[in-house]
Amino acid sequence: MKVLVINAGSSSVKYYLYQMPEAQVLAKGAVERVGEPESRLTHSSDGRTYTSQVTVSDVSSAMGLVFDTLVRADIGVIEEILEVGAVGHRVVHGGEEFTGSVIIDEQVIASIEKYAELAPLHNPPNLAGIRAVQRRLPDILQIACFDTAFHATIPKVAYMYALPYELYERYQIRRYGFHGISHRYVAAGPPP
Fold first, then answer.
1. Fewer CB atoms near the end CB (10 Å): N or C, the chain?
2. How far is it, in rounded angstroms, from Cα 192 to Cα 184?
3. pLDDT of residue 158
4. 107-146 in b/e burial notation, b at 16+ Cβ within 10 A?
5. How far is residue 88's CA from residue 22's CA, in Å, rounded to a whole number?
6. Where residue 181 falls among pLDDT bands split at 50, 70, 90?
7. Is 129:59 a contact under the CB 8 Å cutoff?
8. 139 has catalytic annotation
C-alpha cells in the first residue's frame, strides 16, 4: 500500500510518499512560500531532485500541485493518484480530546476546527490539507496524528499554569506540549 504523509503548514506543504509496510520512501518534497508571488516546488525521487518556481496561492492549491507532481510522466512515481491507499496528516493541536492518532471523519474535522483557536497558524492549514484530500480522493482513509497527543499524559500539576482556574475552564489555557510527533520519534525510534 502507498501512504502519503502530509504536513500542511501556514506557508508550506511537505510530503512523503511511502510504500508500506516496507516504509520505503518513493518520493518526498515540499511546496514552500505558499501564498507568496514566487512559491517553490522541490520534489525528490530515485536519487534525483527537481525544483521549480511556481505560483501557489493557498494550501489547497499546493495540495493539487503535490498530487499532480506525484503522477507527472517525467518526475512522478505513480501512474494515478488512486494508487495512494491512505493519507496521514500532521495536525498541531488536538486539545485534551485527542490522545493518539485517529481516523478522520466529520466529528474529528469539527474538533480540529474548534482547536484552531488554540493554534490559529497551524490548525487551519492542517484542515485545508485534509479538505483538499477529501475533494480529490473522497473515499480514501485519512489519519490525523496530533502533535499534542504525545504529551497527553502530563500530570495536571505539570500542565496547569499559575493563573486563575477559570481561564483553564473557559479557554482551555494550559500547557499542552508541542512537537510530540518528533519527541515520540526521538524517544522510541522509527517504527519497526
1. C
2. 14
3. 86
4. ebbebbeebbebbeebbbbbbbbbebbbebbeebebbbbb
5. 16
6. low
7. yes
8. no
